[in-house]
Amino acid sequence: DKAPSYSTVKNWYNEFNRGRCSIQDESRAGRPKSVVVPEKINAVRELIKQDRHVTYREIEASLDISMTSINKILHEHLSVKKICSRWIPHNLTNAQKKARGDWCKEMLEKYIQGTSKAVYNIYTGDESWIYAYEPETKQQSTVWVFQDEAKPTKVVRGRSTSKQMIACFFGINGHVATVALEQRRTVNSEWYTTICLPE
């Protein structure tokens, strides 16, 4: 009952016939070693810190590791995710934020917390450059963000071959006027009184 089967005997006969001298198991390739090691994890972390827009293919080419391993490193070990930057109209300094807050408090006092009828005479506006360029797509603006980091915001505007300064104004009933500035003209008190207010 304990004798090896005919196929096992035949297999060993062929092995010894080919020159094998030992009955010990030979080393086999087997399952490849994992590349998800601290050195590779740190290398991926550094690539992301250097370029938040780095792609899977760029990581693969740089570190010579598979997409599966990259995915495992990014999500299981580094806990990063790729998100779109949130657009904000202006990036204000603390001094600018304080000045705006102070002005709002002053207006609330002046117009009796908004109950005065004089609030109907208030107009607000802002001017901005309108650029003639191809805006960055949502996909192009995605960046890698680590778990403990804040979501990125974006105020950068691309280079443009042409641009036009536009001023928009609103009253209590909505849009009042949109005024385009002439070339090389700046927004100042003279522009408001001579060009903007008449329109």
Automatic annotation (TrEMBL):
This is Transposase. One of its GO terms (cellular component) is nucleus. GO terms for molecular function: nucleic acid binding. It is found in: Nucleus. InterPro entries: Homeodomain-like_sf, RNaseH_sf, Transposase-MT_Hybrid, Transposase_1. Pfam families: Transposase_1. Its main location: nucleus.
